[in-house]
Amino acid sequence: SAVISQKPSRDICQRGTSLTIQCQVDSQVTMMFWYRQQPGQSLTLIATANQGSEATYESGFVIDKFPISRPNLTFSTLTVSNMSPEDSSIYLCSAYTKGLTFGSGTRLTVV
Amino acid sequence: GENVEQHPSTLSVQEGDSAVIKCTYSDSASNYFPWYKQELGKRPQLIIDIRSNVGEKKDQRIAVTLNKTAKHFSLHITETQPEDSAVYFCAASIRAGSYQLTFGKGTKLSVIP
Question: Distance between CA A81 and CA B29 in Å, rounded?
Answer without folding.
Answer: 34
